[in-house]
Design goal:
globular, 404 residues
C-alpha cells in the first residue's frame, strides 16, 4: 500500500499504543471528506492494480474468459446464421448479471438496509403473475423485466403479452416456473454477498489475529448486563447460541442458519471464517440454504399471494385457522391487497392525483434507486478508508514488536 503522510503516520503510531486516541469511525465523508477520499482512493487503486495483475497472469482468464470474450464480441458485430443465438445468449447473460447483482446488493443492503428483494424481485413476481392472469397465458418474455427496460415501465403491472381470453387461467405451477429462474439467481447473489464477512474473519484467523468486527459481536453476545432491554438480551443470547451451533454442526449448521430470514447471518459468516471453515463448505451451505430453500419457499408464498384466484383462498384459510383475530385480519388483508393492486394497475380509473402520481412515479423511482446506489458507494468508500487505517495500524504494531 502507499506510504502514509507524516501527519497520518503519527496518528497511526499513537493508535498502536491506544486505539482510543484516534477513532477510525471518524473517517466518513461528512466529517473528514478529503482524508476519507484519499484513503478510499488508495484502496480502490490497489484493488484495481492487484485484480488486473491477477487476471493477466491467471490461466482461466487468459485461455478461457479472454478468448470467449473476443469471439463473442466479434460474432455480435458480424451478421450471419449465428446472430440470433448470440443475441439470445447476450440477453440471458444480462438477465443473470442483473439478478445476481441485485442479490449481492441485497446482502450488503445497499449501504442502508434497503433490500433489493422488496424493491425488485417481489414486484417482478407480482408483474409476472398479474400479466399471466390478465392474458390467460404465460407465453411472454418475463426476462425483459430488467435493466430499467423502458418497454416495461416501473409502475406498470403489465408485461407485454398477447391476450387469450378464451384460454384457461394459467396454473400455479406455470406461474411459479416463470419466476423461479430470477428467484434462484437472486438467491445465489444473496449468498455471494455473505462472502466479505467470512473472508475478512478468515484472513484474520490465518494471520493469528482476531477480526475486530467478530470480536465486537462476541462481546455483545456475552454481555449479560441486566440494564439491557429484554429484546437486546434475548438477541445476544441468540447470537451466542448461533455461534456455538455453527461450530458444532459445520455445513448443516450454516445451512440451517441460512434457510430462514436470519438478520444476524453476518455473524455466521464471521464465525465460519474465525473457525477456518473451508470456503466451499461455507458457500455451498449458504447457497443451498438461501437460494434453494429460503427463496424457493418465499416464491411459493408470493405467487399464491399475488394470484387473484389463489389469494382469496389463502387469506380465507388464514382467517379460519387463526382464532379470534383471524377473520378480521383476513378481511383487512384482502381489502388492502386488492386496493393496492387496483391502484397501481390503474383499474377503475382513479383520481387525477393518482394519475399524476403514476405519470411521475418512474422518475421518482429512478431518483430513489440512484440515491440508494450513491449511499451504497459512499458507505463502501468509508468502510475501505477505515479498513485501510486499521491494516496500517496492525502493520505498524507488528513492526514495533519485531524491533523490540
Amino acid at each position: 500500500m502507499a506510504s502514509l503522510t507524516k501527519k497520518n503516520s503519527a496518528i497511526l503510531e499513537v493508535g498502536v499504543v491506544s486505539s482510543s486516541d484516534y477513532d477510525v469511525k471518524t473517517l466518513v465523508f461528512h466529517k473528514s471528506p478529503f482524508t476519507t477520499a484519499w484513503y478510499s482512493g488508495l484502496v480502490v487503486r490497489d484493488f484495481v492494480i492487484s485484480t488486473t495483475k491477477y487476471c493477466l497472469t491467471h490461466w482461466l482468464f487468459l485461455f478461457v474468459v479472454l478468448p470467449i470474450t473476443i469471439v463473442w464480441t466479434a460474432l455480435a458485430h458480424v451478421d450471419g446464421a449465428h446472430t440470433e443465438a448470440v443475441t439470445e445468449a447476450t440477453f440471458n447473460l444480462k438477465f443473470v448479471v442483473w439478478w445476481l447483482f441485485l442479490g449481492i446488493m441485497s446482502s450488503i443492503g445497499l449501504g442502508s438496509g434497503a433490500q433489493t428483494g422488496t424493491m425488485f424481485l417481489f414486484p417482478h413476481i407480482l408483474k409476472v403473475v398479474y400479466s399471466a392472469e390478465m392474458c390467460h397465458s404465460v407465453d411472454f418474455n418475463s426476462r425483459a423485466n430488467m435493466w430499467f427496460n423502458p418497454d416495461i415501465p416501473t409502475t406498470s403491472l403489465e408485461i407485454p403479452c398477447e391476450a387469450h381470453p378464451d384460454a384457461p387461467m394459467p396454473t400455479w405451477w406455470e406461474m411459479y416456473s416463470k419466476i423461479i429462474g430470477a428467484t434462484l439467481i437472486w438467491g445465489i447473489g444473496t449468498a455471494i454477498g455473505e462472502i466479505p464477512p467470512y473472508q475478512f474473519s478468515y484472513m484474520a484467523a490465518v494471520a493469528g489475529e482476531i477480526d475486530e468486527d467478530f470480536q465486537a459481536e462476541l462481546d455483545d453476545a456475552q454481555n449479560k448486563d441486566e440494564n439491557l432491554g429484554i429484546m437486546a438480551r434475548y438477541f445476544n443470547r441468540m447470537k451466542a447460541w448461533m455461534v456455538d451451533f455453527i461450530q458444532r454442526n459445520g455445513f448443516w449448521g450454516v445451512y440451517l442458519m441460512s434457510a430462514w430470514p436470519n438478520f444476524a447471518f453476518d455473524l455466521c459468516g464471521m464465525c465460519c471464517g474465525h473457525f477456518k471453515m473451508d470456503f466451499w463448505t461455507f458457500i455451498s451451505a449458504t447457497i443451498l440454504g438461501k437460494a434453494f430453500t429460503l427463496r424457493t419457499i418465499q416464491a411459493v408464498f408470493l405467487v399464491a399471494l399475488f394470484s387473484s384466484r389463489i389469494r382469496p383462498v389463502m387469506i380465507e384459510t388464514i382467517g379460519s385457522v387463526v382464532p379470534v383475530i383471524g377473520p378480521p385480519t383476513a378481511a383487512f388483508l384482502r381489502e388492502k391487497i386488492d386496493l393496492f393492486i387496483e391502484k397501481i394497475s390503474g383499474a377503475g380509473g382513479g383520481s387525477e392525483a393518482s394519475s399524476g402520481l403514476r405519470k411521475y412515479a418512474p422518475l421518482l423511482w429512478g431518483a430513489f434507486i440512484t440515491g440508494m446506489v450513491l449511499i451504497f458507494v459512499k458507505s463502501s468508500l468509508e468502510a475501505f478508508a477505515q479498513q485501510y487505517v486499521k491494516d496500517e495500524r496492525k502493520a505498524a504494531a507488528r513492526s514495533k514488536k519485531k524491533g523490540t
